[in-house]
Amino acid sequence: MNNLKKVLCLGLVLILLLGTFTGCKNEEEGKGSGSGTGTGISSSSTGFTYSDGITDEGMWEGLTALDLVTLPDFSTLVIKKADVTVTEDEMQEEINTILQKYVEKLEIKEGVIADGDTVNIDYIGFIDDKEFANGSTNGAGTEVTIGVTSYIDDFLEQLIGHKPGDTFYVEVTFPEDYGNEEVNGKDARFLTTINFIVEEKLPELTDTFVKEKLQETYLWTTVAEMRAKIEKDLYEAKLLPLIEDWLIDNSVVSEVPEEMVEYQKEGNHFYFETLANYYKMDLATILGMYVAYGVETFEDMDVLYQDAYKETAQYFLVMQAVAEKEGLKVTEEDRKAYFKESSGSEDYSEVITAYGMPYVNMIVLNNMAMDKLVEAVIFQ
Predict the structure, then answer these.
(1) Tens of pLDDT along 25-47?
(2) How many CA atoms, within 13 angstroms, populate the side-chain half-sphere of residue 11?
(3) Smaller CB count within 10 Å for the chain: N or C?
(4) Cα–Cα distance, 160 to 250 (Å, whole number)
(5) pTM above 0.70, yes or no
């Protein structure tokens, strides 16, 4: 359920990343502002906008969610502390993933090659003592990892035990079905030179490194800020799905309005239409790549996603019910706080242009409703 209800939010990520729309209506059409109630940019084929059917307050038009949803008693929301505890190993894994982007590759020219090593090699391939086409690195060097990189037969395993600077023959037999008549099933020798062993060195994590390398992307300036945000994100990644699942499992929904289900469908169409236009690819190719092999039309996709559309709509219905129960109203300060937390800036004018104020208020309202649920959690 947790992934299904995020179908709608895919559009937000897409548009913020792409920045521009290809094949959409005139830029001025439907444009909103940071303080207005714009409805957002619309689909070129369906006229869909993300603010369709949503009031300026961020509620679904003509709908009182509490008429359709019986919410559970929030005082029964119990979660085990162990289920949301963030370990140091989890923290370090996330930190290393970030540091990996800035890894320094060292050229080691001494030592003996072992299984699992990454090495830079050159080779020239021979069949019957004659060079064959496309069987050489042409002196450019290539990086391979023994036991990981896919090569013919046991080519890479024959590097084990050698040293940087060694030149020797690697002997292999091409598979019968290799796909090249010149080499299919034939024995070959590769005159191979080991240039160096490749070792990766992660950068030292210091305040200076964080400020120089990570501030622009992540807005961090110190290691302490970095660790605090990573820990918070990991904690929420564990906690929020548990709360969402508890809420859905313990709420009684008498009906999911069809217009909310249709909204999810149209929003998904718009998402993939925008993706196809941006990458200048036909829709069938995009759907086959991002949805499932063999899916070529929106009709195909809708059959596959019909349950997801309903579950996503139900999620938004239940979240509105929480907002109604708690009497939540979105203010300008709420919007600024939400975007400050999520993007580092209180300026959300571009998001209003793309989505319209109603949609933005709905997302902020849902976030406020989730905050209320977090406050209600009893940890054991």
Answers:
(1) 333 333 333 344 566 666 556 68
(2) 30
(3) C
(4) 59
(5) yes
